[in-house]
Amino acid sequence: MKNFIFLILIAFIVITTNCSDFLDKIPEDIRTDEKVWANRNDVLSYLANIYAAIPRHNLHQDDPWLGCSDEIDNSWTVYNTYPINLGNWTTTSWFYRKYEPYYRAIRASHVFEANVDKCLELGPELITQYKAESKFLRGYYYWLLIRQYGPMVLIKELQPLNADYASFSRNTFDECVDYIVEMMDEAEKDLPLHWWDNQINIGRPNKIVCKAVKSVVLTFAASPQWNGNKEYADFKNPDGTPLANTTYDENKWRKAAAACKDVINISETQPEARLKLYKNNENGGTVFNPYKSVVDVQLIKWNCEIIWGAYGTGQTQAWMIHTSPGPNNLGGVGPTQRVVDAFLMENGRTIDDPMSGYIQDGFTTVGGPHWNPNNRNINSDTGRKQIIADIRTSEAWGHWTGEWNMYANREPRFYAAILYNKRVIPQIPDDVAKRDYYSSVGQKNGYGRAELYYGGVSRQSGSYTFFSRTGYLAFKNVDPMANMRDRTYPQDYINVYIRYAQVLLDYIESLNEYDPNNADIRKYWDMIRERAGVPSVFQVYPEISGNKEKQREFILRERQIELCFEGDRYFTSRRRWLAHTPDEDGVTDNRKWGDGGRMWGMDINAGSPSTNNFSFTGFYNIVPFETRIFKKEYYLFPIPQTEIDKTKSLVQNPWW
Predict the structure, then answer these.
(1) Helix 40-51 vs helix 22-30: angle between axes, to the nearest 10 degrees?
(2) CA 650 – CA 450 distance, rounded (Å)
(3) DSSP string, 556-572
(4) What is the DSSP letter of 301?
(5) Is 489 exposed, middle or buried, given 0-12, 13-18 or 19+ CB atoms closer than 10 A?
């Protein structure tokens, strides 16, 4: 596996180097080079190059899926999210341009399948497996293309060198979905159920991965953006062929639910697959801890919930640097107030529920029930070290006495995702000097709390632009046992592409659209909530049971919470056709959706840097930090203008 990972990394460098575009040049040469295809190592290198186009989940930096959604603000103007959010992009902009790389990888998959039989060193079993992997990758790249650009030109077989690509036109969205599903079904036939008994292959696709990708694609296709969206009525090829189906088809939700259930059945009937929601007490722990469970599911590589992922230590470490507070970290990935407000109270109620116990203003007078589970002596140095040790091992969590009421008694997933002002920073060692490095004079007590207010130490990252503009920092996928003072890490990490919780959420969302009284909705929703440490939604709000609209509202909120900062919110807001929800121009933000208009957070510019401290209350006023532009054309990225110019039959995306 290490050799395979090395090949992928080398391939990634090659594929992203302008002066040597491997996938543009090699296929033509290799296709006629019998010696190359006869060599096992060369063939594996070629397959690794096909893998190399898979994006590496730089969600804070290269990918727009966080910074252009309503859940995160990236404070850096050098990243593409900044001009996109201001509406400063056109069909000639080079923002997250994946059109050509994905098509090069697709073409390479055809070349590979046409030639791999020549490699007798592999043997028929491996040849069959590698062909299946290639088909999976081709389907997956088409999925990434339609998710970003909409319906694509389907290249289903290797084209001759003199093929007239300029005459190719886009296939319909449904045809693209059908082809992706076909590739997943074909690949699945020749891949094993799992790789646990052959762990050098962990990270490669298997039957579960193929089924999971299929379920994700079908859920996307069943959603309002592509299922009966009449606003795409004029989206047609030059010959008049409609590219989007403007007639609603309930059966698409049924197909999506069935695909999700196929994955769930594996979890429930084939224990050797080791597929289930991650819980700490089922993975070495003695007592169930919902907070530790939701923290560790992001960090423990190849745990039972990870359906598909890839080695990505560098990306995770970079994420931690960008999310951890200064000094010496960049601390600029800021959750918005909208996602902060979406999290439930510990009793499972929403914060706008009068029975929730939520208080927006003032400082707490009592700590939460989990902040000091071992009753440590906070007044001694030994007690302080023990408390910090409990925080770093995720045994202790929740609000402390004196923190702002807004953050008190929230559900475990809130504390696993949000680093807020005055919270003890977990990712620093149990060392007074290192923790005091993160504290202002007068607040140095060996605990090391986040100072996100104007003048706070957490904003000192080497540049005035490197701090959160929302008054929060993302904590999800940050290892509390990492040493972010010295930037050392206790373990390796992976990029997670699909985990089991998403399949469960896709399933209950799909069921609700055509059978809102189905008992499986409660069954699998309760599983997610139970792992999260909050009561069933049907226990808290029994009146929503069977009500499609109410259940949908709560299901999408559950998704917003459970999958926050994983790149899902961007696509959910688009497939549900909610990203253009307008700003109401009120004194507060009452919207649940909308990627344009004002985005809100804490008042990070209030007060004076010379006098502000943790007792300053002006910081906690909720104010807009940015006004974003979102137009309907932004639902899809534009087809690069260079492709439009050279392909007469290729139509541009709507409204561009």
Answers:
(1) 140
(2) 51
(3) HHHHHHHTTTTTHHHHH
(4) T
(5) middle
Q: What gap in Å lies between CA 641 and CA 644, rounded to an integer?
A: 5
* Pick from 417, 353, 357, 384: nearest CA to 560: 417
Pick from 594, 656, 654: nearest CA to 630: 594
604 C-beta neighbours (distance < 10 Å), count: 22
**pLDDT above 50 (res 24):** no
**Burial grade of 166 (CB within 10 A; 0-12, 13-18, 19 or more):** exposed
pLDDT at 165: 82
Return d(Cα 608, Cα 616) in angstroms, integer: 10
Burial of 360 (0-12, 13-18, 19+ CB in 10 A): exposed
- Among 3, 18, 78, 115, which residue's Cα sits nearest to residue 48? 3
CA distance 619 to 605: 8
* Of 185, 118, 174, residue with least CA distance to 146: 174
Residue matched to tokens 């795409």: 232
Does the pTM of the predicted model rise above 0.90?
yes
Average pLDDT, integer, range 495-515: 97
- Residue 384 CA: distances (Å) to CA of 215, 350, 440, 446, 577: 48, 33, 18, 8, 49
Determine if residue 487 is left, alpha or beta; phi over 0 gives left, psi from -120 to 50 gives alpha, anything else beta: left
Give 508's contacts (C-beta < 8 A, 6+ positions apart): 520, 521, 524, 525, 555
Residue 4 has pLDDT above 60, yes or no: no
Sequence-separated (6 or more) residues with CB below 8 Å from residue 568:
502, 559
| Predicted local distance difference test score (pLDDT) of residue 463 | 54
Q: What angle, 0 to 180 degrees and rounded to 10, lies between the N-to-C axes of helices 99-115 and 124-149?
A: 160
Asked whether 38 and 118 are in contact (CB, 8 A), the reply is: yes
Cβ-count burial 187-200 (b if 16+ within 10 Å, e if not): bbebbbbbbeeeee
Q: How far apart are CA 593 and CA 579, in angstroms?
A: 6
Q: Does the domain made of 1-52+97-191 have the CATH classification 3.40.50.720?
A: no
Side chain identity, residue 380: S
Rounded to an integer, what distance in angstroms lies between the CA atom of residue 13 and that of residue 18?
10
Q: How far is the first Cα of the chain from the last one, in angstroms, to the nearest whole number?
A: 44
Please state, in angstroms and as integers, the Cα–Cα distance from residue 519 to each residue in 159, 218, 333, following that order: 49, 22, 39
Rounded to whole angstroms, how far apart are CA atoms 457 and 440? 6
What does the pLDDT read at residue 7?
Answer: 42
From CA 451, how far away is CA 457, in angstroms rounded? 6
The pLDDT-based confidence of 11 (bands split at 50, 70, 90) is: very low
Using DSSP's 3-state secondary structure scheme, residue 208 falls into helix
Q: What is the rounded distance in angstroms from the CA atom of residue 507 to the CA atom of residue 421?
A: 37
Residue 546, token pair as written in the block: 């069977």
Q: What is the pLDDT of residues 207-260, one digit of tens each?
A: 999 999 999 999 999 999 999 999 999 999 999 999 999 999 999 999 999 999
Write the single-letter amino acid at 4: F
Q: 3-class DSSP state for residue 627? A: strand
- What mean pLDDT do residues 432-456 have? 96
At 462, the pLDDT band (50, 70, 90 cuts) reads low
Question: Using a CB cutoff of 8 Å and minimum separation of 24, what contacts does 58-64 make?
Answer: 58/315, 58/318, 59/319, 59/565, 59/566, 59/567, 60/318, 60/319, 60/322, 60/323, 60/333, 61/318, 61/322, 62/96, 63/96, 63/567, 64/95, 64/96, 64/570
Both structure tokens of 247: 């007639």
Rg of the chain in Å (alpha carbons): 25
